[in-house]
Amino acid sequence: MACILLVEDNQLITEAVSGYLQVEGYQTVVFGKTAGVLDLIKRGTIDLAILDIMLPDGNGFVLAKDIRKISNLPIIFLTAKDSESDRILGFETGADDYVCKPFSTKELVLRVQVLLKRTGVIGNTSSESRQIWLLGKDVMEIDNDKHTLFINDSEVYLTGAEWKLLLYLSGAPNQVISREKLLTECLDYYFEGSERTIDTHIANLRTKLGNGDWIGTVRGFGYRFNGESRI
Fold first, then answer.
1. pTM of full prediction above 0.85
2. Is 59 helix (H, G, I), strand (E, B) or coil?
3. According to the 3-state scheme, what is the secondary structure of 118-139?
4. The pLDDT value given to residue 45
5. Which residues contact 107 (CB under 8 A, 6 or more apart)?
6. Which of 77, 125, 157, 182 is the least crowded, having the fewest Cβ atoms under 10 Å away?
């Protein structure tokens, strides 16, 4: 049973979301503020976090950044801040999805299910396993069964969206893939917004992959994975 953390100070929203998740078979843990959240996540019992941004004792963006320092669990922002700049900031802080209030509780739960499947917590049916890629002197090792990524023997932690994009791009090495295709086929329209969303995820992914040009930009067309397969 997956365990979902909900950090939300609105009691009505908390009861509605938590109740619906429990009906769908999830375990829920609820916090009304940021205090204590990081200590809980360090225990390794949380599979996905749903965060409000405006909280009584802090900011959800800051909380997400702190979570990313210790965990790669999926993060969904659930907030009334609906501007494009807020959405982009949300993805830049490491979120996998951004849901604006008012929202459909059923849709939110479906988004939770999709993220958990993509990160292998439930129902992972991917046939990919261990792959090794070379780029000059750099070595990338992807193990989809263990859900791990190593660059030159150093482990790299990705968000759910970054992991999905890396697998999708490396599944078609040296082929140019458009931003639109990444948004629609890779993320299944799951992330609402403009193609800038893809650019944000790719920028974050590149930073984590280090100095190697693993993901190249083809101006006017899209992105290309530059690694050479060894397995």
1. no
2. strand
3. HCCCCCCCCCCCEEEEEECCEE
4. 85
5. 99
6. 125
